[in-house]
Structures are given as structure tokens and as C-alpha cells.
């Protein structure tokens, strides 16, 4: 008789653990979005609940959606640069471009001189 009640209690325990485990797993994308300060974290949370009722089809896409955004660089397609860093980068790039232009201008003048000498 004791084993019957023990088995029933074990079944209830396993069902509860599975139920709460599935809910906890489906909140992982929302927790990632919240940690990364994702601008659409509420939509990810709602879609996670909807995914529970759609046989978990949406869940992998929610994981990807939540991990794409990072607060320090946005969506990751471009890197954000702070004010002075951008200006310094542009000035260094402009200086390097001027040096390359000077070298090319010198080489072009030499090429023209050689071409004129051959004619």
C-alpha cells in the first residue's frame, strides 16, 4: 500500500518538475533579452509564452532574436564609436589617405617623365 502512494507522489513530483522545467526553459530567451537590455524584450517574453502553445516551434528563433542584440554594439552589424574616437579615427584615416595620395602623385609624375623621355 505504501509503494502505491509513493509511486503516486513520485508521478506528481515528476509532472510538476517537468511542467515548471518547461516554463523555465522557455523563459531563457526573455532572461537573455532582459540581461542584454534588448529593446524588444517584452515581445520576446510574449512570444515565448505563445511558443508553449505552438509546440515550441518559435523557441529557437526567440533564442536567436534575444542574442542578436547587445547594448554595447546594438545589433552587431556596425560598431558604435563614441564621439572623439570617431573623429580621431577619421582624422587618422584622412592622414593616411593624404600620404597615399602624395605617393601616387609622385609615382604618376615619374611615370609621365619616363613616358615623355621614351618618345
Automatic annotation (TrEMBL):
The transmembrane residues are 6-25, 46-66
InterPro entries hit by this protein: UCP028770 (IPR011223)
Q: Which domain of life is it from?
A: Bacteria
Which UniProt key words apply to this protein? Answer: Membrane, Transmembrane, Transmembrane helix
Per its record, how is this protein called by name?
A: DUF3302 domain-containing protein
Amino acid at each position: 500500500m505504501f509503494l502505491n502512494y509513493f509511486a503516486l507522489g513520485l508521478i506528481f513530483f515528476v509532472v510538476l518538475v517537468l511542467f515548471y522545467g518547461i516554463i523555465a526553459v522557455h523563459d531563457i530567451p526573455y532572461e537573455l533579452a532582459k540581461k542584454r537590455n534588448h529593446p524588444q524584450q517584452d515581445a520576446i517574453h510574449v512570444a515565448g509564452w505563445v511558443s508553449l502553445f505552438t509546440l515550441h516551434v518559435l523557441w529557437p528563433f526567440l533564442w536567436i532574436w534575444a542574442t542578436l542584440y547587445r547594448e554595447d554594439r546594438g545589433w552587431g552589424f556596425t560598431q558604435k564609436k563614441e564621439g572623439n574616437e570617431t573623429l580621431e579615427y577619421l582624422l587618422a584615416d584622412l592622414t593616411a589617405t593624404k600620404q597615399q595620395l602624395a605617393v601616387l602623385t609622385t609615382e604618376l609624375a615619374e611615370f609621365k617623365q619616363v613616358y615623355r623621355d621614351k618618345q
